[in-house]
From TrEMBL:
Residues 233-293 form the Protein FecR C-terminal domain. The chain crosses the membrane at residues 75-95. This is DUF4974 domain-containing protein. The keyword Transmembrane applies. It comes from Flavobacterium silvisoli. Pfam families: FecR, FecR_C. One of its GO terms (molecular function) is sigma factor antagonist activity. InterPro entries: FecR, FecR_C, Ferrdict_sens_TM. Keywords: Membrane, Transmembrane, Transmembrane helix. Residues 100-190 form the FecR protein domain.
Length: 300
């Protein structure tokens, strides 16, 4: 068969011309290349498609109910959410979260603040301060505490009855019901209650009670006596004295209402309730008995 020069390759692949005839049309190098192509093609087997099977598969796929696709978050989205949670927790912990210290009946504790200031907390008292206290030295007090403040930015003690502001000093604060008292043992403090502001220096004190203000000075004491196990009072209403007794011994005290307004000057120990009651009652010619329930009854 005579090979057509335009179709010799397809004729050779389909077997219409022989190898010899193709060699006459191409170089020996091209013939070897063509032969390798032919051998490779002969290794492929293409089966006839099953049209009916393929048609049925298409029909089944079209009639199958659509399944809702599950949204997939990329790894970066997960990391972004996690980073936001960590950031929010850090902001809350540092700027919002606070520390609370509470003392029980007859117990005291000392707190070392982040600026190295110290707070001694008397019985049945509460101290609240934030995690960023070192940067804003403000705390809240309920009850009684003695402060030894390191020099630095303003140090503020907030109570429901008033506010104390200092720079570096030692002072004692009592904030209980309507009884608010501040004693300065070293340095200078600024005491604010409503529109009234008082500046105290070493040995000076101020007391706000029952809409009255009282000031006095005593430079002999270097710290409050309750730190060494004894409560001391200077012209203090008996109702507050009995409150302090209850805080120390967890023993309820009942007394006639008019006795609560009597002023008391003296001390009582934190180590023995019977000795403490004698120290309170004998100077005022009062009597006391204890019921089976444990409650103390005060009479004249």
């Amino acid at each position: 068969m005579k090979a057509n020069k335009d179709t010799y390759l397809s004729d050779w692949l389909s077997g219409q011309i022989t190898d010899e005839e193709l060699k006459e049309l191409v170089s020996e190098e091209d013939f070897e290349a063509y032969r390798k192509v032919k051998n490779t093609l002969e290794g492929f087997q293409i089966e006839d498609p099953d049209l009916e099977q393929n048609f049925n598969a298409v029909i089944q796929k079209r009639n199958a109910p659509n399944k809702p696709s599950t949204p997939v978050l990329s790894l970066w989205k997960y990391l972004t959410v996690a980073a936001c949670l960590v950031l929010c927790f850090g902001i809350y912990h540092f700027f919002i979260a606070s520390n609370t210290v509470v003392t029980d009946f007859g117990t005291t504790t000392t707190v070392l603040l982040s600026d190295n200031s110290k707070v001694a907390l008397n019985s049945k008292s509460k101290l609240i301060y934030s995690n960023y206290f070192e940067y804003k030295r403000t705390l809240q007090l309920e009850g009684e505490a003695f402060f030894e403040v390191q020099k630095g930015s303003p140090f503020i003690v907030e109570t429901t009855l008033g506010k104390v502001r200092v720079l570096g000093t030692k002072f004692n604060v009592i904030s209980f019901r309507d009884f608010f008292e501040v004693v300065c043992y070293e340095g200078k403090v600024k005491v604010t209650k409503g529109p009234k502001t008082t500046i105290l220096t070493h040995g000076e004190s101020v007391r706000f009670y029952d809409d009255t203000i009282e000031n006095w000075a005593d430079a002999t004491s270097r710290k409050p006596s309750w730190l060494t196990g004894e409560s001391a009072f200077r012209n203090v209403p008996m109702e507050y004295v009995f409150d302090q007794f209850e805080n120390q011994y967890h023993i309820a005290v009942s007394y006639p209402k008019h006795i609560g307004n009597v002023k008391f000057t003296g001390t009582f120990t934190h180590n023995n309730p019977d000795v403490a009651l004698q120290a309170i009652c004998i100077p005022l010619h009062l009597k006391y008995t204890q019921e089976d329930s444990g409650k103390i009854l005060i009479t004249e």
